[in-house]
Design a protein that fits this description.
Elements (H helix, E strand, L loop, with lengths): L8 E5 L3 H4 L6 H10 L2 H14 L3 E5 L15 H9 L25 H4 L5 E2 L13 H6 L1
Parallel strand pairs: 1-2, 2-3
Length: 140
């Protein structure tokens, strides 16, 4: 397959400890699927291939900040994530406690995400990047 780096990108949603690590807060719910589908190994293969082909990689992280706890309406997923502290951060401008937390990148992915070339877009809430700037970043 040939991919043109000028019009191709790789997007990863939630490459974070809370969903991809056996120590993550959501491992009980997703661990069997992550293991069975070899999700981490396959993501690593995609990271390596994209970087080798000089294809842009975008990360859409899932974060909750303390101010998000003031939401008036939550579905069952949000209520559970707030209760367990899934994807919890100290604040939007604060990385205190981030390293190795559930909100941090899976260790295997850090060399690819922290390489200075990967685009990390603003965080999304709940299911996916419909609520962040991923589409804007891809268009630009």
């Amino acid at each position: 397959m040939n991919c043109d780096p000028t019009d191709t990108a790789v997007v990863f949603i939630d490459p974070q400890n809370d969903v991809l690590s056996p120590t993550g807060k959501n491992w009980g719910a997703v661990g069997a699927s992550v293991t069975e589908n070899r999700t981490v190994e396959n993501m690593l293969r995609i990271f390596k291939a994209a970087k080798a082909a000089k294809i842009n990689v975008f990360i859409s992280p899932h974060y909750f900040f303390p101010t998000d706890r003031a939401w008036k309406f939550n579905g069952p997923l949000e209520a559970d994530e707030f209760a367990t502290g899934t994807f919890a951060r100290e604040g939007a401008l604060n990385l205190q406690g981030f390293e190795s937390s559930g909100a941090d990148w899976l260790a295997e992915f850090k060399p690819y995400i922290d390489d200075g070339q990967t685009i990390v877009v603003s965080p999304h809430k709940v299911f996916g990047p419909q609520t962040n700037d991923l589409v804007l970043q891809l268009r630009k």
